[in-house]
Fold each of these.
Amino acid sequence: MDKILVIGCAGQIGSELTLELRKMYGDSNVVAADIRQAGEDICQSGPFEIVNALETDKVAEVVKKYGITQIYHLAAILSGNAEKKPLPSWDINMKGLLGVLDIARELKLKRLFWPSSIAVFGPSTPTKNTPQQCVMDPNTVYGISKLAGERWIAYYNKRYGVDTRSVRYPGLISYKTEAGGGTTDYAVEIYYEAIKNHHYTCFLSEKTYLPMMFMPDAIKATIDIMQADADKLTVKESYNIGGMSFCPDDVFKSIKKQMPDFTIDYEPDFRQAIADSWPQSINDDQSKKDWNLSYVYDLDKMTEVMLKEVAKKFNK
Ligand code: SER
């Protein structure tokens, strides 16, 4: 019987993934953990622990207490915020992962999930249809930590047989929990501002194309890779997952179809340079081949759900 620990359960991904895992494995078999108090839905539906991912001893204690067999380690500082505090962000992103990898080795856990990101790519990477393997020269703290993390999970796999599964998430769009401090977050904010003010001032320029994915597709991809047969997984660092590719102007037009008075203007800030160093679209053929990656949502389908759900939140 699998017992699962989700570290970072209160974040954008964790708050949805935890509940999905509880549906699959049973509420009491999925332990949610975060450095801060999680929402009521998480705390009331199953076990919850306050855990600082940097305190490896405490994480190990929780693993032993519940007999954990699999960890989803999601706690991290995103690209925009990490640029404001480079060294502390490096510590959080790296130390947390190394601690969990070592727990997996020592306590012989069955499997780990750790997310990488399109931020592993950099200015010398081919920007369109970016291949699984190519030049990677990230120039953000977040991207450097993700690339280093990819090397560490491959190392722990080869040297100690630790089975870590990983995907390079594109920008993730969701309505349950807002992202915090990422470069792709405009694609979440724009829906909130559309509902609240019918206007959005975008921090990226009009034609900045980036790879993006709606949360239900990201959760499905995460669960699918964790359930794939180990011998089918040929990539030991992290798999490309592409989703869609769009720019702020595309989202604007998609919202405008449903909200004709919606307006937008553009005031690019420091995150423009980060976006410009990332791919515009991703080739994920390897994921489709190795573990049958598939998606449901395109931009218009996602816009429909986002506008409906965000409106519900604000009783509009
Ligand atoms: N969404 C992340 C960010 O913008 C990229 O993985 O930081």
Amino acid sequence: MGLIVQKFGGSSVRDRDRIFNVARIVRNTRNAGNDVVVVVSAQGDTTDDLIAKAAEISCNPSHREMDMLLAAGEEISISLLAMALQELGVSSVSLTGWQAGFNTDRAYSKARIKRLNTERVESELARNRVVVVAGFQGLNRSDDITTLGRGGSDTSAVALAAALHADRCQIFTDVEGVYTADPRKIPKATKLKEITFDEMLELASLGAQVLNNRSVELAKKYNVELEVISSINPVPGTVVKEETKVEGMLIKGVAKDTDIAVLTIRDVPDVPGMSFKIFSLLAQKNINVDIILQTTGRDGKKDMSFTVPLGDAESAVAALQSATSRFGGGEIIVNKGFAKVSIVGAGMQSHSGVASTMFEALFNQNINIHMISTSEIKISVVIDEQDADKAVAAIHDAFIN
Ligand code: ASP
Ligand code: MG
């Protein structure tokens, strides 16, 4: 018994049957003696459809109007779910993001929650109602509607769980939890019982699209334990928390990211300040650089290579081209045929030989490594894109099966 926050994603409320399925899950939770706050996303592909509608009108719509439009998606879900709960005899009330007290900064389309005033939610709970809150939306200081960025309903749910000191925060989705690799590609991938916030953050940024990144950051900050579970199949999911049992697995996941480009600048002068000049240019353009490699200097020159998101490759080259002519430096080469494959696991901090096991698995498949980078809980390699699936399977076999 306690207070439980349950979040349901778009696929979990996509039609009438799914909405009643959710209403039954909520009713069962309620009947077990809990207070329940529900956060929902827009139904199915509604958000994408609304974006497409806007594109019919304008190729450059204002962010304010986009947020006004997109917020409508979640408002449909909350009212329908509240109705379904009432059909099942469960007392319930739907609240928009602003009714639920979400105050955000001004940044339309990627707003951050500044303050969460839970008074209204608490007074509805005190009246024995299930409170159904629209995810993804809030209100800024001008009383304009804002949205939290794609996938932002997860963040809404975690914020509510933190502010209400909920006993549990359950994220219901259409997969059964977090897997050691993409289960559609790697049939041997297994579902994790537990994963740490830090591991989840690495995997989320590597493209395991189960939880929104910001929601995991927030959960870590306020230590809100998350349970990722299926709304269709009632089996135990994956718990995301600060620390997991030590005897657990060394490697929690293998992920691939094909959304990268490798840029190489040839013949950069081997003098102080060059890295600063190059990477501050990219920072000004908000381009995230990941792996950086440079050759040792020879004849006063060196080569520098680094990865950027695929979509940023052209603007990165544009920014660098004029600069290299100013400060010296030769040809800029762009290679888009690469992929980044990474392993993540807090266990590697206290175990040796993890990197060599990974490299051996690649060697056995005759896969060449172009770049390597490591952090405390992650090792990434850049390889040819055509080898990526084979690499993930081989590495997964080496560590997990
Ligand atoms: N409906 C929004 C989106 O599709 C928010 C969410 O689903 O979390 O991005
Ligand atoms: Mg959605």
